[in-house]
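Supplementary material to the annual report.
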Amino acid sequence: MTELIYPQMPERSLVVLIGPSGSGKSTIARTWPASQVLSLDALREVVSDDAGDQTATGDAVAALHLLLEARMRRRLFTVVDATNVTRSAREPLIAAAKRHDMLPIAVMVATPGSVCIERQGPRPANRTVPEDVVIKQHKDMVDSHRTLKAEGFSEIVFSDSLYRLLPFLERLSETRQADLGLDGSAGLGDLNLVSRVFGAEILPLWQWKPGSNVADGDRVAEIRLGQQYLTLALRTDVDGEGDVGFDVMVPCPHDDECTSRAWVPAYSVTCLFRALNGDLDDDEDIVCTAHGPKNGDEQDDDLEAQDLEVIHG
Ligand SMILES: [Zn+2]
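Predicted assembly:
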């Protein structure tokens, strides 16, 4: 085998990961940008809604070959994330690379079989590969090592010898710097807080409402999609110590007819879901601008009872 250490893969190469289920191929693959990785599991999910549906493998492989051809034709660096433990699985990959003058590189993910089997445990049921299948895949991988060169791979590398942590962190860091505007762009600005609290997926729906005074002068925002929406307020001193947080508007828990605004703290996207779903309508942390806190109910009842006592003597 080659002793070559691979700090940097040549740009015009096709990286074929080879390893049994549970060997850690996807973890390595994720260190490259998503657009550069063709994952058989992901394509199985695309064609069948179920990444573990083995009956979808034929269609997923066909899709993978189609996408691979399109990328090789463009001479784009590509990683194939599939077990690739058989010669018949690897042959069309090598052929596609060679057709377009790309360098096929085999990366053996030679994790011990016992570890691969252990890793099946925590996986979702549909993604668990039976032990005998993993053992067979592991044996096939070991056996294939001798023939890889003859099959046409230009290089054979063990994943242990890769330097992938640095580029992975670099990419994550660049994304983070861009969000913060430290790369010279405008950055997300005050949306960083929104992203941190509710997740980046919410950002496209998030709309600040400058000039709105429904929150007594605090900044107001709306999350709207079609007919459904939530109104939020940014509170800049939620605990008397200057911490910031969000409230989401909910119906007044005291009185169905109340037209004042009632708010409840929103700590995560789960709070947003529950607020829209009505699950927070009886939350004890709701405060109505007119009626006060929800847990003021008992007090009100006591007062009413006292009033009645007074009336009835
Ligand atoms: Zn009220």
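DSSP finds eleven helices and twelve strands in the chain.
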